[in-house]
Design brief:
Elements (H helix, E strand, L loop, with lengths): L6 E7 L4 H12 L4 E8 L5 H8 L4 E3 L8 H14 L4 E4 L8 H6 L4 E5 L11 H7 L4 E8 L9 E8 L6 H24 L3 E4 L2 E4 L2 E2 L4 E2 L7
Parallel strand pairs: 1-2, 1-4, 2-3, 4-5, 7-11
Antiparallel strand pairs: 5-6, 6-7, 8-9, 9-10
The structure holds glycinamide ribonucleotide.
The site of glycinamide ribonucleotide has 15 residues, from helix 1, strand 5 and helix 6.
Amino acid sequence: MSPIRKIRLVVLISGRGSNLQAILDQAASGELPADVVAVISNRPGVHGLERARRAGVPALELDHKNFADRSSFESALIELIDRYQPDLVILAGFMRVLTAGFTDHYRGRIFNIHPSLLPKFRGLHTHERVLAAGETEHGASIHFVTAELDGGPVIVQARVPILPGDDPDTLAARVLEQEHRLYPQAIRWFAAGRLRLDGERVWFDGQPLEMPLRLEEVDRQ
Ligand code: GAR
């Protein structure tokens, strides 16, 4: 087996950090060839920061409320992230809109997770909206981040059924379980050099993707 180089991850959060925890756990067990080198939250005191500290990872707060405008916050965030020289920046429940000044700086090396089958249901409250729309399936997506909110090229998705009697909480829990498998898999592919962004296209194993990969169809590889 050819050894896979470990990549450096900086993870941005705004809250609970369960996706962060899935990544930390897989990095610790060796399933993910990655080191989380810093966790940054734009909201002070959130639980995800505690998860980082417990894993021995620098847990940093950069409160957007301390900045006069979006661009000064983003400049400070770039400066902080780049101190850690990440190969990949991971948005894991990071709930700030990012402008092109930020997203262009990390183009091709920044992922987001979104709780819907993009391009459906961009934005907030996806579980409620999916139920209200009478959908029969739902899921989560990993995409390269561009300046278009939840609009960057999608890499991989996980699907879940919508079951009779579902409410936003039961549905969110079913999606979240998949999110915790989905994010590590996308990071593994990136670490192995199998994924890249070219223009608006995702390339996987040297081929442009016609549509997002489906987690349930790709065994761990
Ligand atoms: C996750 O469900 C993630 O998909 C969502 O926030 C949650 C964070 O949970 N992200 C977005 O809605 C981004 N638009 P976590 O803090 O437990 O990882």
